[in-house]
């Protein structure tokens, strides 16, 4: 007899771990059967989660915090006991814009592309036809990383250009029809645009923040209390799935599973590229190996660092124009639940940091950090501008960010 | 009260529209085009916006409501949290609503309930239609498999049918699944 858990998701490559946990038998090992509800908007994924249609959801990390703080709708507390992955998104530009601001081959460098983009943005602004960028949601890491990059390059995201919301499956269409000049979206949707010959990948979000939190596993905090033990089993199954996800021998098989009609309903070839960190930047080019494009397992990638929740909160303040509130910071940080993660993976082969927070962007080179279980070495996690974020110094951090 | 129904499924939109129009004192507008959605809403300036849960434009719409100054800031129905059950009901039925600030829930609730009933009626219809379709398809497959058996094994029709039925019973499978397996095997083994 297994326990059934329902998980809401959007058809994106980073929904991989729950899907693989079910399909590869890791859920069953934990006495769980996972059932999935696929949606086409984050609003619907969130509604189903909040009103009991699903037990857990594959969710944008900032949206879990926004829901808890009551941004845009009444507050309902969510908990995040597991991070489904870091990065995996890209900035794809229309061929026209890419030709103007990026070199022909390879990925651009954030500052170089940014400098040229600034000229183009100001020209277009002066001509009364502002550049339009599409992101997947107001409360997404896509939006925050894109804005972080633009602002540092001297482009004000709210006045020099327009940023609009576009559902991932329509991103390629929007580029093709000139509705937008660029999109920041997850895979496989950048690659779909490239394949269709309507866009070029010019940057990946890992270049903006090398270890940026992306999708998370979210559960209503109320429900977590009832389902604590099942949640721990789910985390163990996801941890196993993560190990399988990075095994090159299984990439073909795993891509085929994710491509199935009930999951991503997409191209296995494109999905395989994403999970193997090999991305075709422009139509017809050889896929380029981009180390750490998606980061789903190593270096305790799934550990819910409260400092990452704090960074997302800092960007929410920055772009929603709110003032700092220490109490709210605590609330935002409390969405991430390292305590649950620790308990679930105690006695498993999971390296466990001894701290719950770190200075984000502060690790240079492989650094052995204190671990309460196993040995943990963290790789460099820089922001492209070299700034580091100390969650205990949020106010001064915010003061020192570019104002434009 | 001005109600905008956003639904890319024209048949469902028509059913909702008809139901809401009967409620009286309402003007109902259907938008089924994804392109220019924001402009269409701006032009309509509705008091209530109903949108199906499966509509990929929801995130765009919420963003638009959050930042636009052109419309009177419709907010998610969840703002009135007094009634989680009826919200749960609406989600169950597959509809979400955005309501302009200031509308009383006494005015909104009957509309929402009506929309929920219509959405449910539509999905019932759709299920029935799907079932009818799959029954038709099943019958077709069974006929084909029967003909194949008749030809290959030289059986009369009732015997071919009996054979299928026996296999289905013994293997605890649906008749149509057995028929499907036979046709698939024939295909793979290079039948004509």
Brief descriptors of the model:
heterodimer; A: 404 residues; alpha/beta; D-Maltodextrin-Binding Protein, domain 2; 2 domains; five-stranded mixed β-sheet; 39% helix; globular; B: 192 residues; Rossmann fold; Arc Repressor Mutant, subunit A; 7 helices; 5 strands; 61% helix; elongated
Give a nutshell description of this structure.
The complex is a heterodimer of chains A (404) and B (192). Chain A has helices spanning 16-23, 26-29, 42-50, 61-69, 95-101, 110-126, 141-152, 171-176, 189-195, 221-226, 228-245, 251-259, 268-275, 306-320, 326-333, 338-345, 394-400, and strands at 3-9, 32-38, 56-60, 78-83, 86-87, 89-93, 132-135, 162-165, 182-186, 200-204, 215-220, 278-279, 288-289, 294-295, 352-353, 367-369, 371-373, 376-378.
Structure description:
The complex is a heterodimer of chains A (404) and B (192). By secondary structure, chain A is of the alpha/beta class. Chain A has 2 domains: 3-85 and 213-295, Periplasmic binding protein-like II (D-Maltodextrin-Binding Protein, domain 2), CATH 3.40.190.10; 89-207, D-Maltodextrin-Binding Protein, domain 2. Chain A contains 17 helices and 18 strands. In chain A, the strands form 6 sheets. A 5-stranded mixed β-sheet of chain A has the order 2-1-3-11-4, sandwiched between helices. A 5-stranded mixed β-sheet of chain A has the order 8-7-9-6-10, with helices on both faces. In chain A, strand 7 (132-135), helix 7 and strand 8 form a beta-alpha-beta unit. The longest helix of chain A is centred in the middle third of the chain and has 18 residues, at 228-245. The N and C termini of chain A lie far apart (59 Å). The model of chain A has no long low-confidence stretch (mean pLDDT 95). Chain B is α/β, with parallel strands linked by helices and 192 residues long. Chain B has 2 domains: 2-127, Rossmann fold, CATH 3.40.50; 131-188, Winged helix-like DNA-binding domain superfamily/Winged helix DNA-binding domain (Arc Repressor Mutant, subunit A). In chain B, helix 4 runs parallel beside helix 5. Classes of the chains: A alpha/beta (404), B alpha/beta (192). At the A-B interface, helix 3 of A face helix 3 and helix 4 of B.
């Amino acid at each position: 007899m297994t326990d059934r858990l329902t998980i809401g998701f959007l058809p994106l490559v980073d929904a991989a771990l729950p899907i693989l946990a079910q399909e590869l038998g890791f859920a069953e090992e934990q006495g769980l059967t996972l059932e999935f509800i696929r949606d086409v908007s984050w609003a619907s994924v969130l509604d189903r989660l909040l009103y009991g249609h699903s037990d857990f959801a594959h969710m944008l990390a900032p949206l879990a915090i926004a829901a808890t703080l009551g941004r845009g709708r009444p507050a309902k507390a969510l908990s995040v006991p597991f991070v489904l992955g870091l990065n995996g998104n890209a900035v794809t530009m229309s061929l026209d814009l890419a030709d103007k601001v990026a070199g022909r081959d390879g990925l651009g460098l954030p500052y170089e592309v940014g400098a040229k983009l600034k000229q183009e943005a100001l020209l277009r602004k002066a001509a009364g036809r502002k550049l339009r960028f599409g992101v997947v949601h107001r409360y997404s890491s896509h939006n925050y990383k894109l804005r972080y990059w633009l602002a540092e390059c001297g482009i004000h995201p709210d006045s020099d250009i327009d940023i609009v919301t576009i559902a991932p499956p329509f991103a390629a269409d929007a580029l093709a029809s000139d509705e937008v000049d660029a999109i920041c979206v997850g895979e496989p949707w950048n690659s779909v645009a490239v394949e269709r010959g309507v866009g070029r990948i010019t940057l990946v979000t890992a270049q903006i923040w090398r270890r940026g939190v992306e999708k998370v596993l979210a559960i209503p905090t109320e429900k977590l209390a009832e389902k604590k033990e099942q949640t721990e089993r789910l985390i163990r199954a996801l941890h196993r799935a993560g190990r399988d996800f990075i095994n090159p021998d299984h990439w073909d098989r795993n891509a085929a599973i994710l491509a199935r009609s009930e999951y991503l309903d997409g191209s296995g070839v494109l999905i395989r590229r994403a999970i193997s960190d090999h991305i075709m930047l422009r139509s017809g080019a050889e896929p380029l190996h981009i180390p750490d494009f998606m980061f789903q397992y190593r270096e305790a990638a799934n550990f819910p660092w409260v400092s990452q929740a704090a960074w997302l909160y800092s960007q929410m303040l920055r772009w929603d124009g709110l003032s700092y509130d220490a109490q709210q910071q605590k609330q935002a940080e409390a969405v991430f639940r390292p305590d649950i993660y620790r308990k679930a993976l105690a006695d498993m082969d999971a390296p466990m940091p001894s701290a719950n927070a770190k200075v984000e962007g502060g690790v240079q080179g492989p650094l052995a950090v204190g671990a309460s279980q196993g040995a943990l070495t963290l790789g460099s996690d820089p922001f492209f501008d070299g700034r580091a974020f100390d969650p205990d110094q949020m106010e001064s951090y915010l003061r020192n960010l570019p104002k434009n | 009260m001005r109600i905008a129904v956003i639904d890319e499924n024209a048949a469902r939109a028509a059913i909702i529209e008809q139901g809401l129009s009967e409620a009286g004192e309402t003007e109902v507008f259907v938008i089924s085009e994804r392109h220019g959605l924001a402009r269409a809403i701006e032009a309509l300036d509705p008091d209530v916006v109903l949108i199906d849960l499966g509509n990929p434009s929801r995130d765009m719409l919420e963003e638009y409501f959050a930042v636009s100054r052109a419309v009177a800031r419709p907010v998610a129905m969840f703002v009135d949290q007094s009634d989680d059950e009826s919200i749960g009901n609406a989600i169950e039925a597959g509809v979400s609503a955005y309501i302009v600030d200031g509308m009383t829930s006494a005015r909104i609730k009957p509309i929402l309930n009506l929309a929920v009933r219509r959405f449910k009626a539509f999905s019932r219809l759709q299920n029935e239609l799907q079932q009818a379709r799959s029954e038709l398809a099943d019958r077709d497959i069974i006929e084909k498999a029967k003909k194949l058996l008749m030809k290959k094994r030289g059986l009369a029709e009732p015997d071919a049918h009996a054979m299928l039925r026996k296999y289905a019973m013994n293997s605890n499978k649906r008749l149509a699944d057995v028929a499907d397996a036979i046709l698939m095997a024939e295909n793979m083994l290079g039948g004509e």
